[in-house]
Amino acid sequence: MVSRISSDCGRELVVTLTAPVSGLHLNWLPVKDNRPKNLDLYTVRFPLPAITSILHRISGVFIFAGIFVLLWLLSESLTSESGFRNVQEWLAATPVKLVIWAILAGLLYHLIAGIKHLVMDMGIGETLEGANIAAKLVVVFSAIAIVLAGVWIW
Amino acid sequence: MVRNITNFGRNGVSDWVIQRVSAVILGVYFVGLLGFMLLSPDLGFAQWQALFSATWMRIASLAALLALCAHAWIGMWTVFTDYLTEYMLGPKGTVLRFVFQAASVLLIFVYLVWGVQILWGL
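Structure tokens for the assembled complex are given below, as produced in the milestone run.
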């Protein structure tokens, strides 16, 4: 269907609608739209704050699952003296160490990126420059923390 | 469009505050526990059990557990309602979102019951 809408400056704008008007306004898609589009995501470079932000989400989902492993270890370690020794033996094995390191890395990254969030919530660094610096600090601090966690585990 | 019927606090501001308060609780608990383990390299069962059976530690652990449940609910809801939508995936988006949200709520419930069992089963 075609509807005519008067724009602010008096000129008439012809918009072709592809969906029924009775639906949500999201369904109104103008067909004659000559604006350039760039939806090829491979040509869009993610800035560092975007990368640290998506990593915050990924680490969050990852540690949500990792809590299962940590609760398992806590449960076993608290049942009895022998349970505690079992956990100590498991933690001596390299594959288990790698899993624990991965969960710890997720926790540390999520913590540090979260602290950045709280700092920015207080209005500190809420500029483009501030966001870039904050993202770099998150990468540096979490890299150091994750390496130190690895040293501690091994 | 995703309607706010499955979020934690029923509105965005409430979720925003709960997410941050629970984050602080979890952060303090995690750093504290990590610090305790770092400062006691030859940790034994007796010391470990004494720590977790102390009343103040049970309170702190329960607070962290409840904070974890709220924090995970809000976080998972945010992720699922951003990516598992009809806009991103077509009609199956709503079904997938429902399945993933139900699974995460179930896992949160498992963590809560299991955590309480660990803390009070000592």
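The CA atoms of residues 40 and 85 of chain A lie 54 Å apart. Confidence is low (pLDDT under 50) at residues 1-11, 19-25 of chain A. Further analysis is deferred to the final report.
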